[in-house]
Amino acid sequence: MQRTIFLINGPNLNLLGTRKVEVYGTTTLAELVAMVEAEAALHGFALTAVQSNHEGGLVDAIHAARAGGFGIVINPGAYSHTSVAIRDAIEGVALPTIEVHLSNIYAREPFRRHSFVSEVARGVITGLGPVGYLLAVRALATLGDVR
Ligand code: CA2
Q1: Which of 79, 81, 101, 106 is catalytic?
Q2: What is the mean pLDDT of the chain?
Q3: How confident is the model at residue 144 (pLDDT cuts 50, 70, 90)?
Q4: Which atom of ligand 1 is nearest to the CA of 77?
Q5: What is the C-alpha separation between 70 and 46, in angstroms, rounded?
Q6: CB of 53 within 8 A of CB of 14?
Q7: C-alpha distance from residue 14 to each of 11, 68, 69 (Å)
Q8: CA distance 46 to 81
Q9: For the segment 103-124, what is each residue's pLDDT rounded down to a tens digit?
Q10: Angle at 119 between CA 113 and CA 121, to 5 degrees
């Protein structure tokens, strides 16, 4: 059976490419998912992509990754900075998880500089736009080979 990477995007990321292009770029969520799917396929993985604007929906998506998930690439959006529930869900499923942010959260408002998710993530990529998601898939594939 093909191994699956779960791609999970949080609140407002469904608006990608439509507004705030100066911060988040012009790539739409559908285009981003297609790019990540292609990168996953290059490494022999299937991709399951979920986007939710709700904290509980994101917790459910993280739990769903337990069924056959090889690893998780997650952009928790604004919940990065507020959600102990998402942090605990990632810790609970114990799958290698790469946290991705399109923008550089350290170069923005002070409230974005702390992420509850980072302390349970295997790694964090921030500020590289959509490329960060592709590097996250590559990291999961490579770490999987190395362990
Ligand atoms: O840089 C990132 O990827 C963020 O996770 C994006 C979140 C933000 O709250 C985090 O601090 C950093 C916000 C995503 C909002 O996306 C939009 C896209 C287009 C139009 C409006 C919002």
Answers
A1: 101
A2: 96
A3: confident
A4: 5
A5: 10
A6: yes
A7: 7, 25, 23
A8: 29
A9: 999 999 999 999 999 999 999 9
A10: 105
